[in-house]
Amino acid sequence: MMRIVHIPALIALGCSGETSSPQEPTTPSEESPSSTPTTSTGCTELTFYVDADSDGFGDPGNTVSACTQPEGTVEDGTDCDDTSELANPLGEEVCDGLDNDCDGQVDHNTVPGDFDSIQAAIDALPHDAEACVAAGIWTEPFDFGDHQITITGAGGPEHTTFDLSGLEGPFVTATGGEDAGCLATVRGFTITGIDRTPVKLDVVSGAFLRASDASVYLDELVFTGNRLAMEDFGGFAGGLMSVTGGELSVTDTVVEDLEVTGQFDLSAPILYAQDASVLLGGVTLRDTVVTGKSQKAGCSLTGLMIHAVGSDVEVYDTEVRDLSVDLHCDGTFTAGVVAYLESGTLVSERWTLEDIDAHTTGRWASVGAMIQAGWGTSHITDLTLSGITALAQSPTSAGAFGGLVLLGDSTLQGFVAHGNVFEASSDLGNASAGGLLTAIGASVMSHVDLRGNTVDASSVRGGMVLLETYGSDESLALSNAIVAGNTVQADFISGGVMSADANGGPITMSHLDLVGNTVLSSGQVWGGALSVTDDHATTVHSSNISGNDIDGKQVQGAALWVWDETALTWTHTNVFGNTGGSAFHGLTDDPSAAHGNLVAAPLHTDLTATDPLAWDLTLQPASPLVDVGDGEALDADGSPSDIGAYGGPLGASW
Question: pTM value?
Answer without folding.
Answer: 0.89
